[in-house]
Amino acid sequence: MKQFDKKIVLENGREFYGYGFGADKEAVNELVFNTSMVGYQEIISDPSYTDQMVCMTYPLIGNYGITDEDFETRVPTMGGIIVREYNDLPSNFRYTKTLSEVLDEYDIPAISGVDTRMITRIIRDEGSQKILICDADMPYEEALKKVKDYVIPTDMVSRVSCKKRWYSRTPNHKYDVVAIDCGIKHNIIRKLNEKGCNVTVVPYNITAEEILNMRPDGLFLSNGPGNPEDVQTVIEVVKELKGKLPIFGICLGHQMISLALGAKTFKMKFGHRGGNHPVKNLETGKLEITSQNHSYAVDAKSLEGTELTLTHLNLLDDTAEGVKSEENKIFSVQYHPESAPGPQDSAYLFDKFIDLMEKEAD
Closest Cα to residue 98, out of 106, 89, 108? Predict the structure, then answer.
């Protein structure tokens, strides 16, 4: 049997030995799990996973490699990945690199051969916690001290947001959208382009005045990592621009919109991560199967007395999955309607944003 060369040490003291791949480095992060069966490339390149180590519940990862077209960001910033079995010989005519090669390129450590079912149960029962990946021969006491001493950062959005504005254009466009980049996934931009929008992607610390000077038809607030209360600059922008132009938010954008209009957010025990969360659309009565990735949620009860109305409800834990304020021309959802590779139940929300901009233009 091949000798273990890496291990992970959890904040609760549990230790798991395995085999390293990707970047050969030590790292301390927050431990979370993801229940998706496919889409590991989109997961490793989702900026919302900044400083997080993701345990994949699906047992085989790496079997279809990595393709150049499917990245969700230019520079992945995930903390690390934990898998049961890693396949380094992909079978896919589209693949250009192996998962290990891409992880090594972007300095992301990974480990295979560990009991991912047990790790997932630990997170489910005890909640998200800190974790260290290191060489197998590191003394246990030293490793545990590094985990205990680690402080989860609060500056993640500032690190993943673009530093200068950039453009994504489409032929014969109808609308101009400004997208505040808090860690935006590229498939969101692709969906807006498909709907006839030219998109100007701007840094998270842009001011309301600078946005108005661009004369956009609508404003989009992106997903991103961390606590929404740490992104006060965007919350202030929403307060200043509400009612002045259509605003659409996804994930972190949903949380920031809710905070700006008086609701409250809270940190979840282990968050929502995966492509199988049932959400009820309260306006239509229909059930949507959604893709999600977040540690914080909007407290549905806190919407009472605010300008917001609840539009979508998570059927697993009754958290607020969607809100709107018609008088302020604002709506948002916690889940990802642009999710790649899927599901696609909620793509209609981009049409809703287009309709808002069309009404405003009339």
Answer: 89
